[in-house]
């Protein structure tokens, strides 16, 4: 058995059973347990609070409708997280179809500064650099580095190929390094 993920959220089987029977208090408890993790994931993927809130609501509605489909052969949070990722990616695809320009405007970048807590200058700088990336590239970086998705999982979620995921990760990493002016050369002193 593999060790639990650092992102694992244990849910008592009794709570899931009560929710499957339609108990409103059990659904309310599940909502409270997963509201913050789903919202945070959606915010990281979409980069916009309003869309993250919409993703949260849509995810929870799907949880309500599809809880009977959860068989328990995988962790509950992994199952729910996949629903949230799919909802966020669907919104990004819709936004990209409607958007003429992939680059965020200065006003959007300034408004997104408030998304990250001002704990350190580096965190804020990274947040601005991530916000400046195209939606798809930012999503791949976040899913890979923060959520621990494999390239195969990212490709499947996005309906793309593994090489697409790898190229977006490489492209995003290069753009972040350039924006953050990170020197990738290592000098060995001997």
From TrEMBL:
Keyword Zinc-finger annotated: no
SUPFAM superfamilies associated with the record: Sigma2 domain of RNA polymerase sigma factors (SSF88946), Sigma3 and sigma4 domains of RNA polymerase sigma factors (SSF88659)
Family per record: Belongs to the sigma-70 factor family. ECF subfamily.
Gene Ontology BP terms: DNA-templated transcription initiation
UniProt entry keywords in alphabetical sequence: Sigma factor, Transcription, Transcription regulation
One Pfam family from the record: Sigma70_r4_2
UniProt domain RNA polymerase sigma-70 region: residue ranges: 30-97
Protein name in the entry: RNA polymerase subunit sigma-24
Keyword Transcription: yes
A GO MF label: DNA binding
RNA polymerase sigma factor 70 region 4 type domain location: 125-176
InterPro entries (alphabetical): RNA_pol_sigma-70-like (IPR039425), RNA_pol_sigma-70_dom (IPR014284), RNA_pol_sigma70_r2 (IPR007627), RNA_pol_sigma70_r4_t2 (IPR013249), RNA_pol_sigma_r2 (IPR013325), RNA_pol_sigma_r3/r4-like (IPR013324), WH-like_DNA-bd_sf (IPR036388)
